[in-house]
């Protein structure tokens, strides 16, 4: 009998939920699989793609992978693998590097024989290139009793399928007894054209939708039969799924009550909200879970909530009025007011502002130093308090002049500071930019969930752009 451990979709390097602990979890799940393989003394470990989560794994992830693969090498157990869509690169693959190190074998059109089983490989091929793909494999060696294909993709008759399994089996130059697959994170097995086709599932939960226990397959070849069994991984990070179906009138209190019913210590907590209840604030629920010891907490509010009934009112202050008010508050000297006029003049090119201000300051210093004395303390509302903006507004009788004044007021952010410096006082770090606070917008917002989705589909690498080959000889 020949026993093969079939695993895949380990997604090493995936820092799920931006959690370093989750990144380590993916590596430890792979380590557990390898340790099980050594303990069971299997004849080979077959990996069906997506060893890494993306094509640019970090150095720590590479070092951890090498360390784990050496455990297999020391036990004289071959690691046979294909390239998945997440890790696929345009040129050489990471799998090739491990092969060069003597730690792995990349499967392809030429069979790799383990006892009486010949194993072939078919890397992930983008859907756009499959029409030109030929399933040409080297002949099965005469002493071999079984032929097995290892591949990565979404094959029929399984969920989300876009690859015709019957076409692969009918057009292949080899009659396969089993097809060992990766890409679909849910384990499943079916028989297609008298051939067993099976997914091993992922070794860690890569999305909130993957509620089933994680694990791998054991494939036994004996007595002209192929037997596929499932083994779970009990040491993976616990996920706690909290489902809250809110009745009408129920809200965040009911969701928090449901969360308190679970032991959350060091777990990833996924709260799913459905029903007819009130809108909830996800942050409050997530914080409760964290306070109760959860590693990560996420709220998915799956309800299609109606918009709030409150009217939305948006108002904007007149920027010129805001500038005038700010200038009045600063109690600027006459010199500062003249500088204010110079800076905001619509007739002066921006590139000439600095030179004009310097020239005007020199003239004022020569002609009348008293012009730099601070203005007397007066209230902004005093009738005798005027600004250059007031003067410009008073002198302009046309809409064009008013528009020019509005455009010029934008420069007051920095110019008020300049004028304050000329006034002999310190620059306060507060300028006419403070007028932004006078623009207000009152809106009614309904709280919604994070809308967590399947990571396997959300973060899938677009291998179409990176794949250059369309024949098995190229993929070998």
From TrEMBL:
One of its GO terms (molecular function) is Y-form DNA binding. Keywords: DNA damage, DNA repair, Endonuclease, Exonuclease, Hydrolase, Manganese, Metal-binding, Nuclease. Residues 3-122 form the Calcineurin-like phosphoesterase domain. SUPFAM superfamilies: Metallo-dependent phosphatases. Residues 364-476 are annotated as: Disordered. Residues 427-439, 451-467 have a biased composition (Acidic residues). Mn(2+) 1 binds at residues 9, 11, 50, 185. PANTHER family: COMPONENT OF ATP-DEPENDENT DSDNA EXONUCLEASE, NUCLEASE SBCCD SUBUNIT D. Belongs to the MRE11/RAD32 family. This is DNA double-strand break repair protein Mre11. It comes from Natrinema versiforme JCM 10478.
């Amino acid at each position: 009998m020949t026993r093969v451990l079939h695993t895949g979709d380990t997604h090493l390097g995936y820092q799920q939920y931006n959690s370093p602990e989750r990144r380590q979890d993916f590596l430890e799940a792979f380590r557990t699989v390898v340790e099980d393989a050594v303990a069971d003394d299997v004849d080979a470990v077959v990996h069906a793609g997506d060893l890494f989560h993306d094509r640019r794994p970090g150095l720590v992830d590479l070092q951890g992978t090498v360390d784990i693969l050496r455990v297999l090498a020391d036990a004289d157990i071959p690691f046979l693998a294909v390239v998945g869509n997440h890790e696929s690169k345009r040129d050489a693959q990471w799998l090739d590097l491990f092969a060069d190190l003597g730690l792995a074998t990349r499967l392809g059109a030429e069979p790799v024989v383990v006892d009486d089983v010949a194993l072939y490989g078919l890397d992930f091929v983008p859907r756009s290139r499959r029409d030109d793909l030929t399933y040409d494999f080297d002949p099965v060696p005469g002493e071999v009793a079984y032929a097995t294909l290892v591949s990565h993709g979404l094959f029929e008759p399984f969920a989300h399928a876009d690859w015709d399994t019957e076409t692969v089996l009918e057009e292949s130059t080899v009659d396969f007894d089993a097809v060992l697959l990766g890409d679909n994170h849910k384990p499943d097995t079916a028989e297609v054209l008298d051939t067993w086709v099976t997914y091993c599932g992922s070794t860690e939960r890569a999305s909130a939708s993957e509620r089933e226990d994680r694990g791998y397959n054991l494939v036994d070849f004996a007595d002209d039969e192929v037997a596929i069994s499932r083994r779970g991984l009990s040491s993976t990070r616990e996920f706690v799924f909290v489902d809250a179906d809110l009745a009408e009138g129920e809200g965040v209190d009911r969701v928090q009550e449901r969360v308190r019913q679970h032991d959350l210590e060091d777990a990833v907590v996924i709260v799913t909200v459905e029903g007819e209840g009130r809108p909830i604030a996800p942050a409050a629920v997530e914080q409760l879970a964290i306070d109760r010891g959860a590693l990560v907490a996420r709220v998915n509010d799956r309800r299609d909530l109606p918009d709030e009934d409150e009217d939305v009112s948006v108002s904007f202050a007149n920027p010129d009025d805001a500038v005038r008010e700010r200038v009045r508050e600063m109690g600027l000297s006459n010199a500062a007011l003249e500088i204010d006029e110079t800076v905001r003049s619509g007739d002066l090119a921006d590139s000439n502002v600095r030179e004009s201000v310097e020239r005007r300051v020199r003239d004022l210093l020569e002609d009348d130093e008293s012009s730099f004395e601070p203005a007397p303390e007066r209230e902004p509302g005093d009738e005798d308090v005027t600004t250059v903006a007031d003067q410009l507004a008073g002198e302009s009788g046309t809409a064009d002049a008013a528009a020019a004044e509005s455009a010029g007021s934008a420069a007051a952010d920095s110019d008020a500071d300049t004028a304050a410096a000329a006034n002999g006082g310190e620059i306060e770090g507060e300028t006419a930019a403070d007028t932004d606070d006078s623009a207000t917008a009152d809106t009614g917002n309904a709280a919604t969930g994070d809308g967590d989705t399947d990571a396997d589909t959300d973060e899938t690498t677009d291998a179409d752009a990176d794949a250059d080959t369309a024949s098995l000889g190229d993929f070998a």
